[in-house]
Write a structure and sequence with these properties.
alpha/beta, elongated, disordered N terminus
Length: 616
Amino acid sequence: MACRVQHSIHNTFLFLSSTPLRNSLNPTTRSYFKNRISFSKKMFLSSSTTAFYCTCSTSSSSGGKDSFLTNGGDEFVLTTPLYYVNAPPHMGSAYTTIAADAIARFQRLLEKKVIFITGTDEHGEKIATAAAANGSIPSEHCDVVSQAYKALWKDLDISYDKFIRTTDPKHEAVVKEFYSRVLANGDIYRADYEGLYCVNCEEYKDEKDLLENNCCPTHLKPCVKRKEDNYFFALSKYQQQLEDVLKQNPGFVQPSYRLNEVQGWIKNGLKDFSISRASVDWGIAVPNDYEQTIYVWFDALLGYVSALLEDSELASLETAISSGWPASLHLIGKDILRFHAVYWPAMLMSAGIGLPKMVFGHGFLTKDGMKMGKSLGNTLEPKDLVQRFGPDAVRYFFLREVEFGNDGDYSEERFIRMINANLANTIGNLLNRTLGLLKKNCQSTLAVDSYVDAEGNKLKDTVEKLVEKAHKHYQNLELSAACETVLEIGNAGNLYIDGQAPWTLFKQGGTAFETAAKDLVIVLEAMRIISIALSPITPGLSLRIYSQLGYSEEQFNAVIWSDTKWGGLKAGQVMAQPTPIFARIEDGTEAETKSAVTKKVSKKEKAPKSKSPVEA
């Protein structure tokens, strides 16, 4: 562990007495410092202030992205970006939030105290422009769009703990206090700036980074020349410290190829950046100059801190920090990586606040080969997808289809094919036919404990290995691989029941009947484990599986990851009546074919009904 210190008497006290340091220590060490560090109040009457920050590495020397997820305390704080409310939510923002929710749910299964933060960024030029275009004032516009985000998160089964709006008075108080602390540290100055400005990015661009006609490479729109008298943050002052952070803790930015990007930006030299706007009224006033408002990143990034405040608490920076900071994980799109992996750590260093443990920059979702975004006008509407296919299908497809961190492309044909194959067939059909056999031959009652005679059983051994594998994938934020691994349990269950052919054994009676009854219990135990292991991805589907196995919703909500251990189902346990847990999706071609076949059959004698394995 290495620590670089730039200190003052004032901020040394603030740092040693605050949660960023306390949270980085184990309980024994915390107690040691608590009992041994004390200062006279007279020491802190001086107005002298400068930054005191810690860049202690919390990862193993390997820098693996699972380092902080497998180590550390009982608290896990993760954030999505605070989404910009210039327009309603799109699939890109939904994707980030679905992924964050899966991670939060997995951490809760590990019995971590999770604080899952999301929210909306509601200040800036684009907001005022969007409100005017809709014939409303900015505050009304923000209320409508912020509510749209909340409604979508409900539709997608997003289990957030905190929803922060940057127009919240408590957030404004935290931002002003943070700004004042950085100002007192000598890291804010006033200057003129002239350059090419992207309204959509809300930042000045280097001409060398632009496309033809000075177009922004992200939004494909021309940047405009601007000259402003603004306040600037001395980012260049923190170049060496940022290099040290990444060298000591290579797991700070993930995936590793994103770390290479960040190191490249820093190596090329850091420029101070503007943190205020003289021409924008819709924002938080600069504390020392009410004619200017605080620029978006010096405002929105603080939402990760202000969100930690309870409604009943005094809105102060220190109170917020002591309520859960530092964050365990910032989950963002790669387009805002620079702000989270360069600007934000430097800002925190200046204010004497501990750094988050990890910044993970995922890729873009594309449609027709282009990034989806409100500014580009080619969005895929998540609300429409949920209404057509349900939240579990939407969650599963995007987390299974896209290797987390990389770009991914949406195709409705691929969507339907994957959902039908994985959820309706592999998992849904396995449960339905097994319960059907149990109902027909065992009155829906389990004959034995799932652990009885299971030692050495090939399915049990396979399931245990796959559960451990899925656990590692979740820890490493490999969400697609986690989905695939849980699906392998379903595949193994189907192979097992097909190989054992219990429908044949039941007909033979005697010991063969007993063997068949035990086989059904073993398959249903695998289904119980699937319901838990897949619950971070498809919480609704997992609940339906668990309910079919005779459990209540309350029991499902109480499960933890250790419940994936083999042996949960008990003899005498009564299963629910078999009901399909996931309906197969019919695309247009399938629907037309089915309709044509139905009409053809109706003109002739009624076709004989073929027997399924359950009825055979």
